[in-house]
Structure to design on (221 residues):
């Protein structure tokens, strides 16, 4: 469960403070698939960054499975992210010098998994990339690269996946494929999924929606 209590973020824009997320209170229950929707600049990535503890809120508290992450130091935050959160980004962020297999293995190596081979293969199979394990990112299509990124996000079986416009760089067929995989993971593992998207059709397929505009929640119609 993710809980936000009066969470806001204000940054300095030149010499003037600018509130990019107004106080927000919400709960995302375990295993929910929620879509965050809103125009560019509405605060969607800011919200994900606060949930992940990548940015500190100006006010309020963020609780992840009951732990108030606003009180953790950088080491504890990094550990919490490693254990609890998988990330998927719009531009994949794979390591270009590593194969698909090696990219997926990286988080397991960081976590000290002794022999990750079977688990890496199982994840690549789950995202439909068994035959692509030894390809480099440059040898893969955008859709394939994003599926590698998803397998990597799942490497340590996190209870939460944060996906920031993961389909933003894919055609609609690959976008739908990725959405189907996210839904499959949500069902099969009970993973909580927070999906930022511009795509109303994808958002409609989520369990719940949060609509942002200018850093404030707009009530769904
Ligand atoms: P979205 O992901 O919905 O496109 P963001 O959360 O990235 O929006 O940004 C919300 C607004 O806050 C934007 O206008 C952006 O320019 C601004 N912003 C984000 N981070 C910072 C920062 N560190 N300093 C100044 N402005 C920022
Ligand atoms: Mg964004």
């Amino acid at each position: 469960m993710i809980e936000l209590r009066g969470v806001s973020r204000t940054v300095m824009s030149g010499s003037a403070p600018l509130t990019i997320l107004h106080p927000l209170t919400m709960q995302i229950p375990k295993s929910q698939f929620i879509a965050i929707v809103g125009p560019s600049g509405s605060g969607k990535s800011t919200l994900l960054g606060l949930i992940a503890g990548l940015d500190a809120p100006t006010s309020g508290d963020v609780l992840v499975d009951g732990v108030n992450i606003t009180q953790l130091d950088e080491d504890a935050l990094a550990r919490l992210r490693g254990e609890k959160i998988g990330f998927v980004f719009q531009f994949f962020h794979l390591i270009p010098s590593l194969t698909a297999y090696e990219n997926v293995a990286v988080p397991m190596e960081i976590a000290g998994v002794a022999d990750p081979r079977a688990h890496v293969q199982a994840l690549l199979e789950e995202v439909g990339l068994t035959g692509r394990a030894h390809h480099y990112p440059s040898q893969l299509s955008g859709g394939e690269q994003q599926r590698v990124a998803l397998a990597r996000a799942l490497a340590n079986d996190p209870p939460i996946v944060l996906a920031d416009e993961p389909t933003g760089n894919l055609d609609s067929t690959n976008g739908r494929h990725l959405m189907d995989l996210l839904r499959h993971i949500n069902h099969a593992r009970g993973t909580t999924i927070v999906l930022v998207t511009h795509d109303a059709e994808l958002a409609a397929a989520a369990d719940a929606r949060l609509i942002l505009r200018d850093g404030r929640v707009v009530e769904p119609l």
Notes: The two ends are 25 Å apart (CA to CA). Strands lie at 2-13, 16-28, 33-37, 59-64, 67-68, 85-89, 160-164, 192-197, 208-213, 216-218. Helices lie at 44-51, 74-84, 100-110, 117-126, 142-153, 172-189, 200-204. Residues 36 and 196 are 5 Å apart (CA to CA).
